[in-house]
């Protein structure tokens, strides 16, 4: 029988969650495999069903499990490492990143004019609710939704262009925008924050409403430091790691001392 330690400081449901988590990491249950029923797990541990339900809920929030109504609870898989920092979209030669294309399948889901949310309005320097052109997308990995995002453009920049049409491009979005808007992307800033998902985000990403998400606000500027595009991306927090590799410069030699001081 699986066991918990009633004398431990850790709550019983957290002890059970830790043991189930270890079994998943060990490979006792593979991604897509169904766990035993809650009554069955409760019997194994000799605890109430409510205790097991709390443990299952915790692992669902962490992104390890997914419950399908009427079917059961399944292993969703371990954390996916997603190198989705925005600089990766531009590439070393300002071209399409073939490795990203091989791993991520992006689906355009809407192109419309919509009121600018506060963070987008601030980035463009316009009033909240100003109508902008938005291109919304969903990214999948192995058919699992891992990102919901949107790219925003000013109406005066992109009205009537391909950016306002419901069509995918055979090249990165920024290259299309540079050509039709006539302004080059010269620099960008990324701001990443953690928050709770909106109801719509939770539904699209297939996560619980109390599962935290990571949110990216990306602002691309032209050489005059004027915003060309403001984009957003939201990922399920427990399933996402953002990685970046970079070189660390060697320490610079100390400057020569003042010759005058050396002679004093």
Description:
The protein is an alpha+beta fold and 264 residues long. The protein is built from nine helices and ten strands. The strands form three sheets. A six-stranded antiparallel beta sheet has the order 4-5-6-9-8-7. A two-stranded antiparallel ribbon has the order 1-2. Helix 1 packs across helix 3 (49-61) and helix 2 packs across helix 3. The longest helix is centred in the N-terminal third of the chain and has 15 residues, at 12-26. The chain is extended, with a radius of gyration of 24 Å. The N and C termini lie far apart (83 Å).
Concise account of the structure shown:
The protein has 264 residues and is α+β, with helices and mostly antiparallel strands.
Defining key terms:
264 residues, alpha+beta, six-stranded antiparallel sheet, two-stranded antiparallel sheet, 28% helix, extended
How does the SSE layout of this entry go?
Elements: H1 12-26, H2 38-45, H3 49-61, E1 65-68, E2 72-75, E3 80-81, H4 98-103, E4 105-115, H5 118-124, E5 131-141, E6 144-154, H6 155-158, H7 173-181, E7 187-195, H8 199-205, E8 213-221, E9 227-236, E10 240-241, H9 259-263
Parallel strand pairs: 3-10
Antiparallel strand pairs: 1-2, 4-5, 5-6, 6-9, 7-8, 8-9
Helix pairs in contact: 1-3, 2-3
Shape: extended
Task: Specify the biggest β-sheet.
Answer: 6 strands, antiparallel
Structural class: alpha+beta
Indicate the proportion of strand residues: 25-35%
What is the residue-averaged pLDDT? Answer: 85
> What is the radius of gyration?
24 Å
Distance between the termini: 83 Å
Tally the helices: what do you get? 9
How many strands? 10
Helix % is: 25-40%
Trace the largest sheet across and list its strands: 4-5-6-9-8-7
pLDDT < 50 stretches: 93-101
User: Can you write the helix and strand succession as a string?
Assistant: HHHEEEHEHEEHHEHEEEH
